[in-house]
Amino acid sequence: MTTDKTGDSLAITLLSEIATVEQLAQSHLKQALPKGMEVSHFAVLNHFAGLGGEKTPGQLARAFHVTKGAMTNTLRRLEQAGFVHIRPDQSDARSKRVSLSSEGKAARDEAVQMIAPVFDNVADGLGPAKIKAVLPLIRELRELMAKTP
């Protein structure tokens, strides 16, 4: 096992750095999002804005690595705000289908405008070349972590 200068494994050091970056990003997001929008709400709206289509609450829960109950709570709040549509699944009466509403798309776009200045400083500091270089590695790490029990 390869270690860093403190004797910790490189994997522990890497994951510690990622956790710290995630905490900082969450903190910046919370401060910049429109009033009443939570990070979990933005994450779901952003997911739909990128992929479109419909998903079941179970599919969304798996995508976000949360319980179905937690996702159901988030979706209920998004539906109350008019940001998503939830309808019965035609092929399975026990299931529901969720899609982004036009209001949800507008709320997501507004949130992106509000948080962009916060993260533009990071992007400017790193520069496009470093960001493009690190994205494949981060994606590969995410895929490996998703496969790890």
Question: What does this 3D model show about the protein?
Answer:
The protein is mainly alpha-helical and 149 residues long. The chain has a single domain (33-147), classed as Arc Repressor Mutant, subunit A (Orthogonal Bundle), CATH 1.10.10.10. 68% of the residues lie in helices and 11% in strands. The protein has helices at residues 10-32, 39-51, 57-64, 68-80, 102-126, 128-147; strands at 54-55, 84-89, 92-100. Strands 1-3-2 form a 3-stranded antiparallel sheet. Strand 2 (84-89) and strand 3 (92-100) form a beta hairpin. Helix 2 packs across helix 5 and helix 3 (57-64) packs across helix 4. The model has no long low-confidence stretch (mean pLDDT 91).
